[in-house]
Amino acid sequence: MKLEPNQIASHNERLLSKHQQRLTFASQEVHNSDHILQQLSDFQIGIPSWALGTGGTRFGRFSLGGEPGNIEEKLEDIGLLHQLNASSAAVSLHIPWDTTTDVPAIKTLATQYGLHFDAMNSNTFQDQRDQQHSYKFGSLQHVNKEVRKQAITHNIEVIRQGVELGSKALTIWLADGSCFPGQLNFRKAFENTLESLQEIYTALPADWKVFVEYKAFEPNFYSTTVGDWGQSLLYANKLGPKAFTLVDLGHHLPNANIEQIVSLLLMEGKLGGFHFNDSKYGDDDLTAGCMKPYQLFLIFNELVEGMDQRGMNHKDDLAWMIDASHNVKDPLEDLLQSVEAIMIAYAQALSVDRIALVQAQQENDVVRCQEILQQAFRTDVRPLVAEARLRAGAALSPIALYRESEVRKELIRNRGNQTIATGL
Amino acid sequence: MKLEPNQIASHNERLLSKHQQRLTFASQEVHNSDHILQQLSDFQIGIPSWALGTGGTRFGRFSLGGEPGNIEEKLEDIGLLHQLNASSAAVSLHIPWDTTTDVPAIKTLATQYGLHFDAMNSNTFQDQRDQQHSYKFGSLQHVNKEVRKQAITHNIEVIRQGVELGSKALTIWLADGSCFPGQLNFRKAFENTLESLQEIYTALPADWKVFVEYKAFEPNFYSTTVGDWGQSLLYANKLGPKAFTLVDLGHHLPNANIEQIVSLLLMEGKLGGFHFNDSKYGDDDLTAGCMKPYQLFLIFNELVEGMDQRGMNHKDDLAWMIDASHNVKDPLEDLLQSVEAIMIAYAQALSVDRIALVQAQQENDVVRCQEILQQAFRTDVRPLVAEARLRAGAALSPIALYRESEVRKELIRNRGNQTIATGL
Amino acid sequence: MKLEPNQIASHNERLLSKHQQRLTFASQEVHNSDHILQQLSDFQIGIPSWALGTGGTRFGRFSLGGEPGNIEEKLEDIGLLHQLNASSAAVSLHIPWDTTTDVPAIKTLATQYGLHFDAMNSNTFQDQRDQQHSYKFGSLQHVNKEVRKQAITHNIEVIRQGVELGSKALTIWLADGSCFPGQLNFRKAFENTLESLQEIYTALPADWKVFVEYKAFEPNFYSTTVGDWGQSLLYANKLGPKAFTLVDLGHHLPNANIEQIVSLLLMEGKLGGFHFNDSKYGDDDLTAGCMKPYQLFLIFNELVEGMDQRGMNHKDDLAWMIDASHNVKDPLEDLLQSVEAIMIAYAQALSVDRIALVQAQQENDVVRCQEILQQAFRTDVRPLVAEARLRAGAALSPIALYRESEVRKELIRNRGNQTIATGL
Amino acid sequence: MKLEPNQIASHNERLLSKHQQRLTFASQEVHNSDHILQQLSDFQIGIPSWALGTGGTRFGRFSLGGEPGNIEEKLEDIGLLHQLNASSAAVSLHIPWDTTTDVPAIKTLATQYGLHFDAMNSNTFQDQRDQQHSYKFGSLQHVNKEVRKQAITHNIEVIRQGVELGSKALTIWLADGSCFPGQLNFRKAFENTLESLQEIYTALPADWKVFVEYKAFEPNFYSTTVGDWGQSLLYANKLGPKAFTLVDLGHHLPNANIEQIVSLLLMEGKLGGFHFNDSKYGDDDLTAGCMKPYQLFLIFNELVEGMDQRGMNHKDDLAWMIDASHNVKDPLEDLLQSVEAIMIAYAQALSVDRIALVQAQQENDVVRCQEILQQAFRTDVRPLVAEARLRAGAALSPIALYRESEVRKELIRNRGNQTIATGL
């Protein structure tokens, strides 16, 4: 489904006068609104192909209907999101769920929607039909070299598919680990994993990156072989200059200071990208910013400061992606909410008075430091985010337009009520 | 599959002399070995019907083969466990997974295996085929009275089936809750749930109990409507004398002092039963005692002290059940390990020198208090647990005999490699 | 130190025009700004006498200078805060630190500052010079009746002093608990504590309340005898209608859903009051709203909804207090930041579109529920909070005026650099 | 106070026959008892000078009496511990608390007690009298170079004192960090700290090591500048071959897998030493093994495996120290309990059937892996630990002898009831 240009136009027209009034006010409240608007326009967040259908837990899944059943439909959905918010120009595919036999057609389709292919994702945490060896006891870490080889081969195949599609990065999330004390030798698991990663690394094209994602726990419940940023960084350093750490906000132990990790990874030149989501207990994979919006802002505060300090390009030098599971919301609405929350946090971080902050830090004026950050966070920058959309031809209020247009109804009509998005 | 009596006998014979030597020593180390042996013989732990197959996570499941495909096969498996350890005489069924059309046959079968039916479990956390209303947004808490009614009716049906089978209790675990702030009104959710529980309570036979299980999170990731012991106790108190709280060891926030909760629930006369398992991060559902065996001992220490103080019968006055998920182990071996760990913890708790402990507590002699508990925990009581099995005609080393007898191989031969236990 | 009226006036004058512009905008953004302004004007937050000096940890304390050395100076400091924000009209005293020999003088002084006496706090977590029995092993829980008696007597003495001063409530925070498994019998500790509380309860005047505060851990590191809301509620229910639970935001296990606890305590008619602060790891006692401002808003969202539903008076029916430790900030500035954050969260909660929220909840429109709450939270209500201050004759920007007036410098000049506020 | 040799002899004589019976049994249960006995005899655990007095929290401290008031008395106390258990031959000093003006006398005294000097500890988390700059806002991280310089100078002075005493290592625990978002720039704090550490590193003698201790939180409650093992390893790698990471068991986020961290640090050749203690909530500094004895065993399991694999010497190649706070126990008894728990865990780890474990891991026989570890943990090795003491001329039951000898009474008689151990 695709919106007609005039649908967006008439939607915007209705909201325009109120929007402009708010924009005027917001532009006065923020010292650098032009800069923020420019940065917001450039910023694009990758949508994971697996997040377009209803998610679930081990206890069950409650489908919504109209879910995309193949890669073409997934592109269609993301295309629609991008029409609505002009901030979702990238697609993150998952192999084998999204393997296509007709690459040129898929590339053409993506181009029509204004989309490009962000990091490719391999899958060695599930057994596929006709797979020779099982990943029940790990993949790249496995004690059996044959199993490792199979997993390596799969990752190289994912790179191959990515090259054809024009992607430039491979994200490796490993479920590898153990459920019980004694089950594996931590050191050997690390060494096996490193050796496997090195083989994959060797297969990377010159202009590619590989992201080593870490996660504290789940689906293994005792140890994870890439369990925290320290371990991921060890791998990335041993692999070489094309290897980076990927941070997923839900992959930490309780109370972790993620923004500090972000800052240090940037310092080391080893931050590769992000999986945005939010959580209260574990890897809850909830909508970005729904639970701890101040933390999201603080993370962006470090990102902006650290990237600027290194002269990095906000848009391209890190991979920005959502990774979420939509168990009780319409996935497309959920993704719109996530993108909105991310853009707000980014805009707020851009609005921080950095000169004043550096000075207050230099004076250990803790009260003032807090005032400066809170000033940025408490200011309502939504009009700036909306204006960036407006200028890009997208909707002032994406969810409102999505609902007015009865998109879900239409998708169910086209795809049926019982479809299940491929994947989990 | 069933073991021949002589299989057990010849297994025991081989181990007997070493066992007796150990038993002699253990009996000297513990001041009340006869009492412990008696208590261990009586103690029986319910096996959940859903834990006989390989478990999984939202990321996947790696089957083992030979899993029971129906209630008859589940009883067969539990019968085998009980042959091996003489401590698994109870079955906890789950409806609708275990609904049977031939109750008398099932009862006869259970009797043949020496099994009886422990608490029945209802399921309103999944949608069953042909179910009119969805539980996507809760069941007993649902804003729509029709949905609540459907869930109530299901629970009453579970009671009906339980009555036929000779069960005496209903366990209600509710996934009800919310994933996002604002999604529901906590108070109304509580009130709806209470009202629903009251209707179910009314349908309880006079000699039945209902257990209200609590859980901190998962599958809902913001709030759970029976989220902690305090909430469960509120429900139980408002319901009446047949309502009790059920404690699952994995259902708490990080660092919770579960043994204190146990003690206070006993004090209030409202502890109903247990779901044993172990965990490191959340509701990991690992083998009992595999991660924090000292905690398991401390819990039993409170149970023994608290039950004795109230004159309760260890065997019958609480419902003792395992609730676990066997993702990387043979489920039957895992259950044997769990039962062994539980029996060890129970034996250690029974061996605590209570007179000395009370005196040390009275004197605030904290060092001595710790010495007394550690003395019980550090003493190797496994020979007592083995002796209790021996006296009951079970195996000195259940897992060894299970493996010698090549049970899994036989189950796969009989049931096939691709069977999936009904349930999750 | 006291500000001259014209200091405030000239401060406000400079900021007025900008303020009015913002106020106009904010009043348009919020549907009920008049109501909010009225509520904000009424709302008063108690300042704890022990938070006026620099706090510390077991590792040390870094004093600031100019700290109040007696109750007169503490009242002076709070009077100043109240001049600045018109929202700190209440004082929460701590006995014996704030025991006075001249009650009439203190009452007169308080009246001059526009202050009244909020809940009184007893102290049985420290040994005072000349105290007969030690609280090393607890106070109201102690195995020795003589120790309990001493602690009961102290609490009754605190009530007596409170009556003289015009306070209407006693807050009991107990450090009682244990550091090691086995150290105490949980049930007996509960029973002793209950018995002790009952004696104190008996001594309460008819128009007094007693607040039973709970805390998960610290200074005891294994168990706490009033460890969570469930335990506190048990005590409160057993004590009677004048006993209530007091919630301190930092007194929970990781990831606890505090807003749900608040809602249920209101439902039970047993929420008595609040200790505001913020934290990342434990009872960090940081500035309210500095870490998780959305959580603070969600808590106020439940407070407003729950109080309104019960017809409670926002201002008087709960005790609103700060409890914080100012280790690296000027305590007075820190308190101003806390009050500001609390007022913002309260204003945002008041601005929630409740009719729409109820409807969205009724339809399980989770996306909409989230939008409604985020709309309230993302709106910048600071102009409303400032306006409430302005109308009450306080400062538009309290911290700015505090700094312009060089208050700390003056306090150091008057009181010296080495003064230590009585207390911890 | 010092025990007479015949006191120990007569104590042992009374317990000998029972002990020998137990030893005989334990030696049969364990396949390598001779090896274990040898290793236990060699193993020595450093006692921190600051743990000889009663500890406290920010809420207070309850003294015991008879606490050592100077370094001579501290050595006396540790000498006594070493007489009792023959496993406490090392002292870990803290400067400036233990600065001595008469080094030769102190060295002679230590030698008389059979003690040597383990890692020296610097203190830049408190302000000392007459100190020019405050550490309120950090030391090695401080924005002001003068403050950093002062802290560097202090560390170099600690090395100097250590060299005189014969120590070979410096432990740097930094409280540096921040309490509020925005307070510091994480990257600059890291860089300042690194630069400072490099200056200290340069001052290290050739045969010295420096240990960089990490801690998740407290006394700073937002960020810590050496916050986790990943950060510590970054510093250690950047510093050079004499820099190592030091692990304190209480310095992690909830649920951290410490044994995996230990294994990986050993793999990297960067594990330097240990601070043993136990905890339930945070850095509770409780007696080693009092809360999670299985975790302690699992850590030793990794230590033994990893050290053996690298050909490391158990006794000397890592620094083994206790770091605890004795709030409710007699510190000397508490230390005896800690050492006992550590020796038990070490003995159990030594008894693990490594050949069988490697094979089971190679076969992914998870059940067997668990059985092997649990076999080691459930076996009662206390007789081996006692025998190692006996052979070294120490007491079979150290705490019993300590109590029989009425040591505390004597210490109070000699030192008085109101003495306070220097330090916290």
From TrEMBL, chains A, B, C, D:
Signal peptide: none annotated. It comes from the Bacteria. InterPro entries: L-rhamnose_isomerase, Xyl_isomerase-like_sf. Keywords: Isomerase, Manganese, Metal-binding. PANTHER family: L-RHAMNOSE ISOMERASE. This is L-rhamnose isomerase / sugar isomerase. One of its GO terms (molecular function) is isomerase activity.
